[in-house]
Amino acid sequence: MRKTAVLIGVLIGMISCSTHETKDHEHPTLGGSNKLEVETYRAVGKSRPAQAALPACVRDPVRCNKDYLAFAEREQDHAHPVADCQALYARLLSQWELLPSSEPRKERTSGLRGQLLDALNINFLLESDTSGVRAPAPQPLVLKERDMGSYQLIDAVLRDPKVGDIPLLMALPQGKGPFPVVLALPGHSEAPSTVLKSLPADLVTQQGMALLSIGMRAYDSQSSEHSAAMALLCRGFSLMGLRVYEALVALEFIDTHPNLTSDAVGLVGHSGGSTTFNLMVWLTDRPRALITDLKADYFNFHEFEERHYILDETHPRLHELAPHINKLSSLPLAVLEVPYGAPGGPVPLLNFLRTQLQ
Question: CATH: 3.40.50.2300, 3.30.450.20, 3.20.20.70, 3.40.50.1820. Which one for 7-357?
């Protein structure tokens, strides 16, 4: 239940705009990343590490926010910093308490791509072509490979100079490709491996499709996500903007992989993953299909133990544009909207994807 705005004054006193490292129990506005044990792996040969424990930010990325905090500090040339970070937090919390009283602006959906790029402030990270915007191609690094019989399961990272190492889990069918691709994004507090529970890799690869999922960092709905989201908002960026950028990086990886078909990509989002994909598909025409289980208003806090943590999707400008973003029927691709969590199981999803991608 939402608390009343009376809490705002108390919460502001609990929140610091410092960029110094904080303890796990603190609730910062711009605090440093939580301490995580990062396990190393021994390189074997030229590019393939030993089958050892994965780095913590690959195995469990949801609490890793250091790359986002570094981005907010580093990209000063493209920042639009606010005058008072504490006041911004207070205003956002107050606005959230009053929802749904705010009204969207009346822009036309036909100009939505430009409005979204302007709001997200990620144009400097991207290039444009006839299909929309494109991210730079990442440098993939394979960390671990497992032969699962009918498919290969691969843990990797997509190395990007702006946002760091993006965790990637890929299930690749045996045999000769290239294969159509299912690119999936998990919900909050979920790692890429969680996708395999709702989209079993053996079922996907039996249909002759590869399954990819990227790890969403700073995705815990608490201090790690809050710190990253506020650090970016206070400098005129947003965590949602970087979520979209990372999904575009994944598309570039697909485009450059010899065993993947870049013109046969289907997107599957769950919860926060749907929030990202519903936005990204307005910026690029390359995906052929979208499955989504959530439409967001791009304004959200998580309340836990009388504290309010701002979530990645929160962006005042996106909130104004949300009714237009959610007009998914206007998109030039096939869209399947399913109930939250896809309670009907994977078969209807796979039938839709097979029809659209093959």
Answer: 3.40.50.1820
